[in-house]
Design brief:
Strand order of the largest sheet: 1-2
Strand content: under 5%
CATH class of the largest domain: Mainly Alpha
CATH architecture of the largest domain: Up-down Bundle
CATH topology of the largest domain: Na+/H+ antiporter like fold
Distance between the termini: 75 Å
Number of strands: 2
Order of helices and strands: HHHEEHHHHHHHHHHHHHH
Largest sheet: 2 strands, antiparallel
Number of domains: 2
Shape: globular
Structural class: mainly alpha
Radius of gyration: 28 Å
Length: 454
């Protein structure tokens, strides 16, 4: 592909809208494939193994997608988190509300899932499935719907989602690591330390870091700890503050290069090999019949909205933290509903939580898809209402009835403005009276100005 076209595609993939659309298309393709007459080919493709067995890398396509491709996604998430910590919304007191919102937005869905399964006799293994928010999908919906929404709303959602990802990573590391090979883990830590030292020594060259990153990933995978942890760790190590004379920090530069790979390849392929579940009428009915799947749906749709909104409101009510003055509580409610889109990481956690039960794994995936869809529709409706309101406000602010180049809203307290507008209205009224008089007299005056040449 020629360089200009390649740059155009890469720039497009850096936008949330395009990345979210690709993710959605991949999920739809997976659902169509898995429910088509050739669904057997989907299952056989998903289970096809390849790799080096001696290095513990003889994995199925599904495992390569979850353990390998998602590492790229989490690497970018690690850079985003580091940037927010050193130069963004997580740097100061402003971080309190979205951080608490993220924590409550994970705790309440887990509680909802636990209550549903405790009362219904289901398994508590999937408590973490509805706790995750999908950054790509959520930001894509916000970008498409919220063209007139305040920029502070995107910052709130991004901070919430980044913190959510951090805790999701910790959950994966702590609760879904069954056994640990401490020798491999120790070597992985050494490899990460070498990565950190090279960065601090400002050693340059992709041919140094890419092979080292692959070795670190392989060692982390061999240790039994989920391999995506290596991606997050390396992302957090990158310097994300700018020095004098720098247009971009190293973290920003690397994120700029890697994001198209993450949004255009890694995440869509993961969705393609993870979202393929049966969506027959019976399967959808079963989602509301089993406590595990019902807990996931209610956790995403109800738990996320209540947790994010309730945590934000309680923090603003009982602490010194304040909601950004650009935002209203209705905006927070819309974002709280948007946080219920748990696609990518929720699918991953569902696979890990019910790894020994393929039937339940498929049903939980269907629940994640349904819950995310309901949350997306609800959030899109609320965001559309808020977007319409903000658009009307913008139109009112830009209104200039007297065509003097100054928006009327800035002149409404100026006496001269009122005198000028009164004069304009009086002149228009006088012209209307004159035209009406001409029409009544039937003078046949062809000159609209009333100035007949003598």
């Amino acid at each position: 592909m020629p360089l200009p076209e390649r740059n155009f595609v890469a720039d497009a993939l850096r936008t949330e809208t395009v990345g979210g659309v690709l993710l959605l298309l991949a999920a739809v393709a997976a659902l169509v494939w898995a429910n088509s007459p050739v669904s057997g080919s989907y299952v056989s493709t998903l289970g096809f193994h390849f790799g080096v067995a001696s290095l513990h890398l003889d994995l199925s396509v599904g495992h390569w997608a979850a353990d390998g491709l998602l590492t790229i996604f989490f690497f970018v998430a690690g850079i985003e988190l580091k940037r927010e910590l050193v130069a963004g919304e997580l740097r100061g007191p402003a971080a309190a509300l979205p951080v608490v919102a993220a924590v409550c937005g994970m705790a309440v869905p887990a509680l909802v899932y636990a209550i549903v399964n405790a009362t219904g006799g289901g398994s508590l293994q999937g408590w973490a499935v509805p706790t995750a928010t999908d950054i790509a999908f959520a930001l894509a919906v916000l970008a498409v719907i919220g063209t007139s929404l305040p920029s502070a709303l995107r910052a709130f959602l991004l901070t919430l989602a980044v913190v959510d990802d951090l805790f999701a990573i910790l959950i994966i590391a702590v609760y879904f690591t069954s056994s640990i090979d401490f020798a491999a883990l120790g070597l992985a830590v050494v490899g990460l330390a070498v990565f950190w030292v090279l960065l601090r020594k400002e050693v340059h060259g992709w041919y140094v870091y890419v092979p080292l990153a692959l070795v670190n990933w392989a060692l982390m995978h061999a240790s039994g700890v989920h391999a995506t942890i290596a991606g997050v760790a390396m992302g957090l190590m990158l310097r994300c503050h700018r020095r004098d004379g720098e247009e971009q920090s190293p973290g920003e530069h690397i994120e700029h290069l890697v994001r198209p790979l993450s949004a255009g390849v890694a995440v869509p392929l993961f969705a393609l090999f993870s979202a393929g579940v049966s969506v027959s009428g019976g399967a959808l009915a079963d989602v509301f019949a089993r406590p595990e799947t019902l807990g996931v749906v209610l956790g995403l749709v109800v738990g996320k909205a209540v947790g994010v909104f309730g945590g934000t409101w309680l923090t603003a009510r009982f602490t010194k933290a304040e909601l950004n003055p650009e935002l209203a509580w209705a905006d927070v409610l819309a974002v709280a509903s948007l946080a219920g889109i748990g696609f990518t990481v929720s699918l991953l956690i569902g696979e890990l939580a019910f790894a020994g039960d393929p039937v339940l794994t498929s049903e939980v995936k269907a629940a994640v898809l349904l819950g995310s869809l309901i949350s997306a529709i609800l959030a899109a409706t609320l965001l559309k209402l808020r977007n319409n309101r903000y658009r009307r406000l913008v139109e009112e602010e830009e209104r200039d009835d007297d065509l003097d180049g100054i928006p009327d809203v800035y002149e409404q307290d100026n006496p001269a403005y009122h005198l000028r507008m009164a004069a304009i209205h009086e002149a228009k009224a006088a012209e209307h009276r004159r035209l009406a008089e001409v029409a009544r007299s039937g003078s046949g005056d062809d000159d609209p100005s009333g100035m007949i040449e003598g």
